[in-house]
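Lecture notes, unit on binding sites. The following record was shown on slide 14. It pairs a sequence with zinc ion.
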Amino acid sequence: MSLAKTYPIRCPKCDHTQNVKLYDSINVAQEPTLKTELLENRLNRVQCESCDTSFRVDKPVLYHDADRNILIHWMPDTACSREEILDEFDDAMDELRSALPENTEPPRVRLVFTRVELIELMFIIEAGMEERVVEHIKYTIHTQNPARLPPSKKRLLLNVQDSTADELLFAVQDIETSELGEILRYPREVYRGVQKMYRKNSDEFVELFPGPYINARAVLIEDGGSAE
Ligand SMILES: [Zn+2]
């Protein structure tokens, strides 16, 4: 079930406060229109009744796809640090596991910090791709192009929809400006090879990307930081 609550929200432009209904969780199997709202950047968007400004409220949202038995927590890191979010997340997961009826397959659980990451992951899962394999490929691309694609400045986003049977398309996003730049093409054949490795020896991949936040940039930045 999708859940929404009423929150007092202040307009960032004119400071007018109004009560608005915002979603805490969306069940996209039951309510696919909410997925459309998310894709079109209309979910949890508010129109100020005083000055007419439209703005999105970034708050935690739980994305639930029951058909694929996955939960994705979108936890914007604007209010608190990623470390705090991860701590809270572990507690919430323990609660979830103990609340599940016996003999139920526990859902896969993922964490994302931005809407862009949520949408990318949603498409990866719907395409039946493995997110750890995708991040492993991003890891390789960053590592092989340190000058052109430094993980501290550039983000790779897999564009599932425009990828073809032969090629995966990655968009390069500038972290600071959020602008999308060049498109990288990557042979799908190599993806299949990495996927085979993953299926044979997933431990290595899980060790590199333990989750719940599976992200090549985060791993590279952390490694870079500890090497200094
Ligand atoms: Zn306003």
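Take-home: The longest strand covers residues 17-27.
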